[in-house]
Amino acid sequence: MSGDAAGGMFAFDGTPVPFQPGQSVGAALAASGVTAWRTTRGAGEPRGLFCGIGVCYDCLLTVDGLRSQRACVTPAGAGQDVRSDDPGAPLASPTTTDGGERR
Amino acid sequence: MSGTVFDLAVVGAGPAGLSAAVVAAETGLRVALIDAGTQTGGQYWRHPDEHHLDAFAQPEHTGHHHWGHYRDLRDRLRRQVAAGRVDHRAGRQVWRTDGPGDAAAFLLRTTAVAGRDAVSPDERAIRARRVVLAPGAYDRQLPLPGWTLPGVMAAGGVQAMLKANQVRAGRRAVVAGTGPFLLSVAAGLARAGVEVVAVCEANALSRWAATPVRALQEPGKLLEGAGYAATFLRERIPLRTRSVVTRISGDGRVSHVTIGRVDAAGRVRLGSERTVEADLVALGWGFTPQLELVVGIGARTRVDVDGSLVAVVDDDQRTSVPGVYAAGEATGIGGAVQSCAEGELAALAAAIDAGFGVPSARARGLRRRIARGRRFAVGMHRASPIPAAWSTWLEDDTLVCRCEEVPVSAVRRTVGDLAADDARDVRVTARPGMGMCQGRVCGFALSCLVSEQTGRPAGSADLEPLVRRPVGTPIRVADIAALAPAAAPVAPADPDDPVAPAGVAPADLAALGKESS
């Protein structure tokens, strides 16, 4: 049930991730065994999918330079540049890399 | 298209909204159907991309109930869309609805769910003489130690991954909380090849015995239950009643789950705890109706049997605001069959109110079905309550609010030392519910914790402020900047007029700044 080459690939922090057409970015990441792609502002804890349906905003990441996109409701697309998100980073930065301060 | 005033706008394309849109259009109304999903079905009928079904290993109906009914609704909707009677706006969320005022039409402002909004502000605002709100619901959550670890998900989210993406969110799962939905999720996981280590149902199944008549009135539900029982036996899924997850642990993601037996009040029995290995935890404590738009438009609410804030509706799904109807989970959690009936009835009521002819027998039949479904739902809520002593599972540093990382100790200190005496006070002081999700996830638990400490049960006056938001869903600043063209005022604004030309009250913008800062 995991993704294969039929859909395509997007890049997650530079690493290729396969997806089926119509899958969400979050689902494709989960299928590839990635469970966290954001760190919290306060304690720097890792977060990924929680509600899975667009309500909780825990799964935010950056898609093609657009920040704060919900991984669970963002359709995966071939060639997307998906990056882990750090909501605490300055807004001036169009894309951010992982905060790197995981405890 | 921007000048179009629809007869009816339906918000949500799940069982209730989809039924409402189809029936309204078939009755002769011109309908706008607005939905966050890219395709219809809502959370209940979430399914793989209809344009690429061959790319998925399993057929689109895998794991679904009442799929035939959905397919029928979908076909009927397609015919209405093709005939130009329904304008389906997919992938859009309504973030604000303004009352008709002098314009005789409601104005629904929408935003793109994903990506940049390429549609012009005028094109994405929808005007309609009547509105059916069918916003649905999402998993209700209670905090517990370790629930913020990656690998912990809402039960509905786990199922959405299975249904829409055909992706397993883990390999070894614990499913926990209360209510029949847990059985559905566990069965789906097992069928997808996930090892379900335990299903922890906090309540005793004997609670269902108190409502046998209600269960017998809904034979479909009994059959569904029998189906789960068979799956559980076949897949050897251990169902543990009066059991809860007391702690989730792991280094950066879930690795271990501690399970304990509880008494009738929900207190963990001494010495009953044991720890199992798992990489996925699915949590669900019933559902939270999505009430922002209901409260935002000024419709009356009440607290339902399960403690949820729901819309008050009359026998025909009319809310207290003329021209606004509510259907589905927003009127009280009752499941998909109930939601379909409510959606149909709301559409008929809207058609009648708009002067269209509707056979009265059809509405009468729906009213009877809805009353019966409601009796079953009340029985279900009574059989699956939130355990009274759930907060005894918490530790001081357990986060109540995931977004703002507010621990339970801060909530209790705010009530105890700072004398905050309702959930709203605590919210603005200690900041739970002030992050991105705006209290959608923690609002219920927060109100419970505050009630527990103040000794005052939460009424709708306590719960409403937790969902009253001038902006119903987080939006980009560009959407606010785009407000002016959307309203297209004809007369110059009076400087003393509290409503700016853009149709936004300055007080609302001030409140917005306060709530999201």
Automatic annotation (TrEMBL), chain A:
The keyword Nucleotidyltransferase does not apply. Residues 93-103 have a biased composition (Polar residues). Residues 74-103 are annotated as: Disordered. Keywords: Oxidoreductase. Gene3D superfamilies: 2Fe-2S iron-sulphur cluster binding domain, sarcosine oxidase, alpha subunit, N-terminal domain. The keyword Transcription does not apply. Pfam families: Fer2_4 (PF13510). GO terms for molecular function: iron-sulfur cluster binding; oxidoreductase activity. This is Proline dehydrogenase. It comes from Microbacterium imperiale.
From TrEMBL, chain B:
Signal peptide: none annotated. Residues 6-336 form the FAD/NAD(P)-binding domain. It holds the Pfam family Pyr_redox_2. Residues 487-517 are annotated as: Disordered. InterPro entries: BFD-like_2Fe2S-bd_dom_sf (IPR041854), FAD/NAD-bd_sf (IPR036188), FAD/NAD-binding_dom (IPR023753), Metab_Enz_Cyan_OpOx_G3PDH (IPR051691), Opine_Oxase_asu/HCN_bsu (IPR017224). The keyword Oxidoreductase applies. Gene3D superfamilies: BFD-like [2Fe-2S]-binding domain (1.10.10.1100), FAD/NAD(P)-binding domain (3.50.50.60). Keywords: Oxidoreductase. One of its GO terms (molecular function) is oxidoreductase activity. This is Oxidase. It comes from Microbacterium imperiale.
